[in-house]
Amino acid sequence: MYFPENVSRLCGKKRFSFACHPRVSCFTECCRELELALTPYDVLCLCKELQMSSAHFFKRYAVVEQDARGGFPNVYLGMVDDGRASCPFISEKGCKVYKSRPGACRAYPIGRGVTLDTHGNVCEMHVLVREKHCQGFSEPHSHHVTEWFENQGLIEYNAINDEVLGLLHHEKIHQGRGLTQDGKDTFILALYKLDEFRKIVSSPDFYEKYMLSKEKRRSVLADDLNLLRFAIRWLQEFLFTENV
Predict the structure, then answer these.
(1) Which of 45, 65, 221, 225 could hold 74 in an S-S bridge, CB 3.0 to 4.6 Å?
(2) pLDDT tens digits for range 75-133
(3) pTM higher than 0.90, yes or no?
(4) How far is Cα 162 from Cα 165, in angstroms, rounded to an integer?
């Protein structure tokens, strides 16, 4: 497999030296001139941190990129128009939403690629990305991938994000089935706008149509994480079984 010159494969327990903190000369440079994709769990955590509705978050911070070929839409963090495309949450002191920063920010400088095998098992591949400006690689702190992910709080992020793979890699997508605009809108609503989806799931029409028992409804609506996981499973039925 070909990798660019600044990208190298990380296998097994191979170690790398890296640290990022205010005393590193390039501090916050990696938070500028970037294209940052947001997962549903990223948006859920950011909305909680910012104490705002998903509608407000999308209006202020999110950019939705539609796929004209009928693929799933992508959600990106909208950058500040300051000539450097800076993250809206960055300051001289660092990240203002650090506790709830997106998974891609936590993983840096590691890139994680995931696919599903024929049995539905998650297959991972990791790479180390060395950007020219980054001085963090001169720091003496040594890690391997598992240590880094644990230290950055990525275990839960990865586990939840991986649950979406069954939807994104559904066999009907591989067979060439595209999404209607209604399907794309519902994808964004169910996964990225949980407060709005919660109202829909709470309605009698919804739980009667999908035959949700009181116990199931109570479990689904108990917290946003349960609701997100339900949305992932429900979308597979809505998008690939129903006529949308």
Answers:
(1) 65
(2) 999 999 999 999 999 998 999 999 999 999 999 999 999 999 888 899 999 999 999 99
(3) yes
(4) 5
The set of residues, in sequence order, having a beta carbon less than 8 Å from that of 155 and lying 6+ positions away, is 149
> CA torsion sign, 170 to 219 to 193 to 104?
negative
| CB-based contact 193:156 (threshold 8 Å) | no
Cis preceding-peptide flag for 109 (omega within 30 of 0): yes
**The predicted structure's pLDDT at residue 195:** 96
Please, which residues bridge with residue 85 across strands? Answer: none
Tokens representing residue 192 in the block:
């990225």
On whether the CB atoms of residues 235 and 179 are closer than 8 A, the answer is: no
CB 102 within 8 A of CB 158: no
The HSE-up count of residue 119 (CA atoms within 13 Å, CB side) is 2
Q: How confident is the model at residue 243 (pLDDT cuts 50, 70, 90)?
A: low
Single out the residue of 197, 182, 190 nearest to residue 243, CA to CA: 182
In angstroms, rounded to a whole number, what is the distance separating the alpha carbons of residues 175 and 166? 14
CA–CA gap between residue 188 and residue 191 (Å, rounded): 6
Cβ atoms of 26 and 146 within 8 Å: the answer is: no
pLDDT for the residue 69: 83
E strands of 74-159, at which residues? 74-77, 90-91, 94-95, 110-116, 122-129, 142-143
Short-list 164, 171, 172, 185, CA closest to 230 = 164
For 170, counting Cβ atoms within 10 Å of its Cβ (0-12 exposed, 13-18 middle, 19+ buried), the class is middle
